[in-house]
Amino acid sequence: MKKILIVDDMMVSLMMTENMLADQYKTFCASSGAEAMKIYRQELPDMVLSDLRMPGMSGYELQIQLQEEYHEVIPFMFMTADHDEETESRGFDNGAMDFIRKPFRPDVLLRRVANILQTVEQIKGLKKNASTDALTGLLNKASSHTELTKICASSLGALLMIDLDSFKLVNDIHGHAMGDQVLVNFADILRSAVRPTDILGRLGGDEFIAFCHGIHDEQAIAAKSKFINERIVEEAKRLMGEDMNIPLGASIGCVFVPMSGTEFSELYQKADKALYGVKQNGKHGYGIFSEDEGDEEETSELANIEQIEMILSERGAYDGAFVLPFESFRTVYRFLKRTRGFYSKTTCLLIFSLVRHKEGEIHLQDVADQFISVLHKTLREGDAITQNGNNQFFVLLTNTDAYYNVTRAVQRISDNWDKVEACRYFTFEYEWKVMNN
Description:
Distance between the termini: 61 Å
Number of domains: 3
Mean pLDDT: 85
Structural class: alpha/beta
Number of strands: 15
CATH class of the largest domain: Alpha Beta
CATH architecture of the largest domain: 2-Layer Sandwich
Helix content: 40-55%
């Protein structure tokens, strides 16, 4: 059932409008722009039916704020008693899909709403056809690059280049029709290996690409590689017979974001280098990009300290705290513990634990991804973060004034956590101490 958000500061008008729509749509009601923003974030309705003139935040302002937040045109229809043509023109300039003048008849409102929703579905269908690969249904090359450029600039996770090894032999031995079946099944296997919120695309031929949100450790990549390689052999034997002896498998090159940068073109090259290493070492496995390995040849030709510094430095922009695998975090912790006496300010260790306070259909891993993203964006560039299991997180606050800075940091984390969906189901507990020698 389609969802409609109704916004009107006049309670009688709000109730009457909801009554007209409730039999055919799932409705949500808000009596102010601020309340509407909150409901929209929680429910993501298919369209918004809003009064135009409201105190605090007008319908225009609500529309503009939502579109700026979600970076897309949101289906809006305005209700108004104003007969000024300039008012209507301004609404259409902002992207409104229709106006309806108060008072209105139920049949007129239902027809107008149905027209908008039908138009939205047609637009979505056209966009999907233009952005997806015809054979597999995954994002095509152009759309993959567009989406991943935005995601890599602002998200934490793993960018994966994935090749289907020895695929050419399928076409050569069994024909292109069988090759297409194998590609379709391989795309389904990749869908099973990632979550619905992750990005998955086909670059062409037997080359695929993925972005897995929140993943920043080798163990998760190893598990995905094992799953994909086992499943493709099973599917290939089901399609071509148990005596199928083509060495099908998947080679995966991985680079972690933002630890190795935030520019997609640069990350793409790094993942490709990691993939090349897998191809050179027997295929059917994975490789994690390392700055040391990636710059091995360049390092051997260094002539001065500026070039060495360039190699050692972190690549790309680094807004937010430093997210590290557990072993790297432990190395940083030990180093700071050794050198603590040389600095006037202190370093504090914080441990955060996620605690469920409401039942709901949300996976703990998704919650953990959202929480570590909040930590990354909230804390300073000089702070460090790692994840321990599914629901525990370690943080190093460096160069702090202990209690004052810890209290402020936790309050900022709490404020930002309240803005994400997962806060409806999980809260967090924490403890901290000053690092001692």
